[in-house]
UniProtKB/TrEMBL annotation, chains A, B:
Keywords: DNA-binding. GO terms for molecular function: DNA-binding transcription factor activity; transcription cis-regulatory region binding. Residues 37-56 bind DNA. It holds the Pfam family TetR_N. The keyword DNA-binding applies. It comes from the Bacteria. SUPFAM superfamilies: Homeodomain-like, Tetracyclin repressor-like, C-terminal domain. This is TetR family transcriptional regulator.
Length: 193, 193
DNA sequence: GTCTATAAACGGATAGAC
DNA sequence: GTCTATCCGTTTATAGAC
């Protein structure tokens, strides 16, 4: 597979890049974007600033790459769960997969938040809610129900609810996020939303 | 009223502080915490960096003060709306007041987000959801209903839903946030949640 | 009360050796 | 591929004049 550098990568180069994405995700998640300097990234990876900049053209490019990798992992996991469920159960599967995946990856959550607020503030919100809205519409269809509520608002509330549940379980590992996810599922299944 | 500086403030000093809180809120909301230097704050206020640091001991203290002012304005407005409503209607009043207040103050929203992620990452989430949980419990009591769902999770989902609605209306002023708020209200009134 | 001037450190990024 | 060395801009904060 060709890479972003326009040629094939050696194995060691590939390994370095993966390592840099790892340490960047960890540092940005734990200390924030602003507090994560190239120097700290280099130190954590065991090389120098210049060494880091050989693999990625800039700090921003590196952080964006780390962000993209975290995001693609999420959409892959959730997508698989949704596909495994039938259309009628897709919304429930989505909620459970999102909460389940993110709750187990606190650093991924913080990485996403940090990247959204510090490097990609213009992330298109529609990309997220419209996917959920489609799931709800398909589920209604599969169950031969006529929806009463606005799909966009329903999808937004579901997304916000998921975020709040995940965020809470990050701060309090004792919190039963799975039960909270079921609460959200029950609301969706009962028609509102 | 005694001030944080331990003595009474002159009128001009009070005015300067208020002006600095204003410009700081504006700059942090528009450009983010990291991109808001003391130099830019000073320039916007028409004084110098050293002048700013006479009024506030550090950049962080200034931003925290601006954050606190925005927050207290929010809790005052929402608190008044909740108090004006009866206990039975308090949850609905809370949702409407939150969405209404924040939708009209995009910069306050961004200021709060920026401060939460960059200067006060350890904000106690319980302070927010427990207040909402209390409102729901009191409303159930006033309506002689027995709640079935976990109050904490219900409060979290409501809060997350409000955040998502407000955030969406920030990015798309055409979006009918008031209607979305009514959707959330109807969910609460119908028992779940 | 606000300024000038400056300290002292840190940031990202580049050039070129090896 | 990674390093050393360095540049240059920017940052917060302080000292002391006015």
């Amino acid at each position: 597979m060709p890479s972003a550098r326009g040629r094939n990568l050696t194995f060691t180069e590939e390994a370095r890049r993966a390592q840099l994405l790892d340490v960047t995700t960890e540092l940005v998640a734990d200390h924030g974007y602003a507090a994560t300097s190239l120097g700290r990234i280099a130190e954590s990876a065991g090389i120098t600033k210049a060494g880091v900049l050989y693999h990625f053209p800039s700090k921003q490019a590196l952080v964006e790459a780390a962000h993209a990798r975290v995001l693609s992992e999420l959409v892959e996991a959730v997508g698989a769960a949704v596909d495994a469920a039938g259309p009628a159960d897709a919304p429930a599967a989505y909620i459970r997969a999102m909460v389940g995946h993110l709750r187990e990856r606190p650093r991924h959550v913080r990485m996403i938040v940090e990247a959204m607020t510090s490097v990609a503030p213009l992330t298109d919100s529609k990309a997220r809610w419209s996917a959920v809205a489609d799931l709800i519409a398909a589920a209604r269809d599969a169950r031969r129900l006529t929806g009463e509520v606005d799909l966009r608002s329903a999808a937004l509330v579901i997304g916000g609810g998921i975020d709040a549940i995940v965020s809470e379980s990050l701060g309090d590992p004792e919190y039963d996020a799975a039960a909270a996810a079921e609460l959200l599922v029950s609301v969706v299944e009962r028609g509102l939303l």
